[in-house]
Write a structure and sequence with these properties.
The complex is a heterodimer of chains A (113) and B (113). Chain A is mainly β. Chain A contains no helices and 11 strands. The model of chain A has no long low-confidence stretch (mean pLDDT 94). Chain B is mostly beta strands and 113 residues long. Chain B has strands spanning 4-5, 10-14, 19-25, 32-38, 45-51, 56-59, 62-67, 72-77, 86-93, 101-103, 107-112. In chain B, the strands form 2 sheets. In chain B, strands 2, 4, 5, 9, 10 and 11 form a 6-stranded mixed beta sheet that branches. In chain B, a hairpin with a 2-residue loop joins strand 6 and strand 7. The model of chain B has no long low-confidence stretch (mean pLDDT 93). Classes of the chains: A mainly beta (113), B mainly beta (113). At the A-B interface, strand 5, strand 9 and strand 10 of A face strand 4, strand 5 and strand 9 of B.
Chain lengths: 113, 113
């Protein structure tokens, strides 16, 4: 039972390059989320998907796009990477009871040079 | 508009003593209050939570207190252990926010042996 799996774990991009961060869950949860973590800023929501086929912007969506491919998978795409997008990215799913919050993946550390 | 604040970026405690982590919020409409723990190179993991209708919840060495009138949340760890050294995030949930969690910036806890 893997929970939430993120790939890749590390990535270095040059400014202007594109890439897609992958997230897959095996818990049959409906809602999935992408957050970024920056020092002193906590975790900020980029995009989320309340259910298969729906996506919505979060707090910091600029420069990103998402795809909810099916119930299991939620990908985050950077079309033209910028140094400001250097961060650690976490995917999460909402547990059946909000009292238990999210289950997070182990993160993708992205550096844009 | 920063809805959730963790005003102490770091905290250092001696092993065996009590660790108290604090979180203040501005919006009184949150319904669940959660604490997450994060080790380096890992995703955040759920620690403990409390419903807005309660003022205390205890789970082993961890107790969360909620003071709604002061809009203040705290996490007590007694006794503190070196393995508790991590970053602690408070997170607040509100159904009307589409089941999203709003996170504080985090507090780095270091337990010295």
């Amino acid at each position: 039972n893997a929970g939430v799996t993120q790939t890749p774990k590390f990535q270095v991009l040059k400014t202007g390059q594109s890439m897609t961060l992958q997230c897959a869950q095996d818990m049959n949860h409906n809602s999935m989320y992408w957050y970024r973590q920056d020092p002193g800023m906590g975790l900020r929501l980029i995009y989320y998907s309340a259910s298969e086929g729906t996506t919505d912007k979060g707090e910091v969506p600029n420069g990103y796009n998402v795809s909810r491919l099916n119930k299991r998978e939620f990908s985050l795409r950077l079309e033209s990477a910028a140094p400001s997008q250097t961060s650690v990215y976490f995917c999460a799913t909402l547990n059946d009871r909000p009292y238990y919050g999210y289950t997070f993946g182990s993160g993708t550390r992205l550096t844009v040079v | 508009d920063q809805q959730v604040k963790q005003n102490s970026p770091s905290l250092s405690v001696q092993e065996g003593r009590i660790s108290i982590l604090n979180c203040d919020y501005t919006n009184s409409m949150f319904d669940y209050f959660l604490w997450y723990k994060k080790y380096p190179a890992e995703g955040p993991t759920f620690l403990i939570s409390i419903s807005s209708i309660k003022d205390k919840n205890e789970d082993g060495r961890f107790t969360v207190f909620l003071n709604k009138s002061a809009k203040h949340l705290s996490l007590h760890i007694v006794p503190s252990q070196p393995g508790d050294s991590a970053v602690y995030f408070c997170a607040l949930h509100r159904m009307e926010y589409g089941n999203k969690l709003v996170f504080g910036a985090g507090t780095i806890l270091r337990v010295k042996s």
